[in-house]
Amino acid sequence: MLILGIESATAQVGCAIGGHEGVLASAHSAKGRRHVENLAPQIDFVRRQARIELEEVSVVAVDLGPGLFTGLRVGISTAMSLAHAVGVPMIGVSSLDLLAFPVRFSPRLIAATIDARRGEVFYALYRHVPGGVQRVSEPRVGTPEELASELQARGEECLMVGDGALRYAEIFGELKGTEIADQGLAHPTAGSLVQLAHAQAMREEWVQPWELKPMYLRKPDAEINWIKRETPS
Amino acid sequence: MANFENILGIETSCDETAAAIVVAGKTIRSSVVSSQIDIHARYGGVVPEIASRAHVELLTPVVAQAVVEAGIENEEVDAVAATYGPGLIGSLLVGVSAAKALSLVWDVPYVAVNHLEGHLYASFLEEPELELPLVVLLVSGGHTQLIHMKGHGDYDVLGSTLDDAAGEAFDKVARYLGLGYPGGPAIDALAMEGDPEAISFPRAMRNDGLDFSFSGLKTSVVNHVRKNPDVDAADVAASFQEAVADVLVAKARRAVKQVGATGLAIGGGVAANSRLREAVLDACTEDGLQAFLPSRAMCTDNAAMIAAAGWHRLHSDGPSRIDQGAESSVRL
Ligand SMILES: [Zn+2]
């Protein structure tokens, strides 16, 4: 079972191919927000490195977000068309799950964070369980202060990962028992995506390309304004 | 195969999600357009983020439908063309990403197409024998241009709007008159019952050069209605439309004379306006010019025109690079 994974929720964009023997090849770039320019060449490069044809892929996995809308759109649109053209199902994984995955062996509470711009972060909390992590709070968008007080209320040792924690390191650094992981763990990777999706694919937990739903967590501004206008206060 | 017979075109630059199969840049085998007008109507205009999200949702089914309606198999697609600009960047990215993905899997060329060039080729889809050189008046919500089409892929922009696009003026006036969105068809319909000579709205720069200006026209419509609150809205619509058509046609005629072209074609959403079509036809008859007025479906955004322009690009320049991006503002 070969999985092609596409990841584009943050400043980084990348893809990987793998299966039961793990990741066979991957490529990432994080400079200059060149998602649409870089992704297609990366896919072509990775499939050559893995020595396969795209027709051999059995599932296309994609990072569903939350993350930066423009980047997500490139990854999700590319992944949907790939799956459609090859004629295979898709597996969508949350960017926050992907961030928590590489630190799954930590016994601490894990806070996965993504910089949502406009003074907010996307975040979810995880805990180690045998074989991986379990999400203990729903993905959410909020201010770093909100997340900080939630972590403070829990009063646990906490490991924070993602570019959201790094961006607001001053705020989170104040918290007792909290450590912020470095730049190396700041972005979700396509390798994690392939590994997580492979486990799901073995259980046939997939959807068809037209059933895939991106996770935006934030409504378009116009819609927010419209709802405000229509709702008498 | 070497002639790239079947081109899949993809268009997502604004609020239409479209895909089409066109043979050799001439024959439409399918053209699917899924309009988002209903989604944007309550906001009174296209909301970029909402448009981008809708494109993501709609594009895969629209592409699948275009291939099925063309009666071909995926393997018979010889190249994939997509609009890379100008347009809303988030929307463009969806189409460009999808097109590149399809070209990778099917192992066929990807062609990046300029949306404006697409509009120029819409006429050729309905009239393959159209002679060049030709002047094209391109009028829509996003652009107002007079283009001298000297040969395939060889254009001069003769004039452009200095402020609002013609379609933007229609939308703004319609919103002011409470006619809803989109404004073009609403004004066209209301104007049928009004007197185009009831109010003499200004014709900015009518006899001066080939550039356009429409922002002042909207202001004078607003001022007129303020001063005359009992004015008949149908008269306002008809007189406004008359002013727009008058300026567009006067400049188009002058452009044709200036470059010595033998014909005038129109394109873009505003080219579906009935008064403008009538005025273009009258002017061409009077001046002894070949007039070409594409059908409504070929005036508004569609992917068949992108596939057609893509076919010509592929033959003149070869495939586009797969690391080419999308651009919100590109010129012809
Ligand atoms: Zn257009």
Could you walk me through the main structural features you see in this protein, from its secondary elements to its overall organization?
- The complex is a heterodimer of chains A (about 230) and B (about 325).
- In chain A, helix 1 (about 35-50) packs across helix 2 (about 70-85).
- Chain A folds into 2 domains: about 5-95 and about 190-220, Nucleotidyltransferase, domain 5 (2-Layer Sandwich); about 95-185, Nucleotidyltransferase, domain 5.
- Chain A has 8 helices and 11 strands.
- Chain A has helices at about 35-50, 70-85, 95-100, 145-155, 165, 170-175, 190-200, 220-230, and strands spanning about 5, 15-20, 20-30, 60-65, 90-95, 110-115, 120-130, 130-135, 140, 160, 180.
- Chain B has about 325 residues and is α/β, with parallel strands linked by helices.
- Chain B is globular and about 65 Å long.
- The chains are: A alpha/beta (about 230), B alpha/beta (about 325).
- Zinc ion (ZN) binds near residues 140 and 301 of chain B.
Question: Short description, anyone?
Answer:
The complex is a heterodimer of chains A (233) and B (332). Chain A is α/β, with parallel strands linked by helices.
Question: How do the strands of the widest beta sheet of chain B line up side by side?
Answer: 3-2-1-4-5
Count of helical regions of chain A:
8
**H-E string of chain B:** EEEHHEHEHEEEHHHHEHEHH
Radius of gyration of chain A from CA coordinates:
18 Å
Average pLDDT of chain B works out at 94
- CATH level-3 fold name of the largest domain in chain B: Nucleotidyltransferase, domain 5
Which characteristics define this entry?
heterodimer, A: 233 residues, Nucleotidyltransferase, domain 5, 2 domains, 5-stranded mixed β-sheet, 8 helices, B: alpha/beta, 11 helices, binds zinc ion
Give the topology, please:
The complex is a heterodimer of chains A (233) and B (332).
Chain A: E1 3-7, E2 13-19, E3 22-29, H1 35-49, E4 59-65, H2 69-86, E5 90-94, H3 95-100, E6 109-115, E7 121-129, E8 132-135, E9 140-142, H4 144-154, E10 158-161, H5 163-167, H6 169-173, E11 178-180, H7 190-202, H8 221-230
Parallel strand pairs in A: 1-4, 4-5, 6-10, 10-11
Antiparallel strand pairs in A: 1-2, 2-3, 6-7, 7-8, 7-9
Chain B: E1 6-11, E2 16-23, E3 27-35, H1 37-41, H2 48-70, E4 79-85, H3 89-106, E5 110-114, H4 115-126, E6 134-139, E7 144-151, E8 154-160, H5 166-176, H6 183-191, H7 215-227, H8 233-259, E9 263-267, H9 274-287, E10 290-292, H10 296-299, H11 304-317
Parallel strand pairs in B: 1-4, 4-5, 6-9, 9-10
Antiparallel strand pairs in B: 1-2, 2-3, 6-7, 7-8
Helix pairs in contact in B: 2-3, 4-11, 5-6, 5-7, 6-8, 8-9
Bound molecules: zinc ion.
